[in-house]
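Example is below:
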Amino acid sequence: MAASPFDLSGTTVLVTGARRGLGRAIALEFARAGADVAIGLRDVHDDEGLASEVESFGRRALPVRLDVTDLAGARAAIDETVREFGRLDALVNNAGGGILGQAIDVTEEDFDRVWQLNTRSTYFLSQHAAKHMRDAGGGAIVNIASQAGLVALPGESPYCVAKAAVVHMTRCHAVEWGDYGIRVNALAPTFIATDGTEAALSDPEFRADTVERIAALHRIGVPAEVSGAAVFLASPAASLITGQTLAIDGGWTAR
């Protein structure tokens, strides 16, 4: 019997920003699908039990020190993953973040920090991973963009700009690296209930406005609604999909 096209048994993935939130959910979803998982962490000694959870699925877990703003260290983490697992089939560029503030008040330092965290890191980690994938005959890269890269969110302009760049970067890398057998896609989630969004969503007025803007389903998302899509884009089930950004936004951008 042929294996399911969603089966990732025998493959390896590196997930950045894997300790909590979406990154943790994505790492566990890949393990559930059969992949061995390199867990990108700022502190390899503090994974909140994630490695053990990955191993509970019968998969190998490799905590690697990975701060995406430290490109030399991030490249070393990719090399370590390949050295320890023997291959790198998928990279999930999950780490990111933004700041709140009106565009008229944003400083150069603010802008540069958000750009480095979201865009510069995604570009150069993808580049380094792609060199390993090219030599191995192919792979998949999944960028975690945001609905902020598709629509304007007042008060978050540096983040919107950075994620919009990730969306277009996804197209550019997909076109250039397709000949190497590398597929590059992105996910653009709406507000997802994680520790990172808890403070904002705990404000009743903000939460009500957000739910209203999620125009079709009118509810906040949960991490599993993103992690499954990440596995799909890295799996054989998506073998003809590249250069695309999938909005996981409950209808926000359809309005």
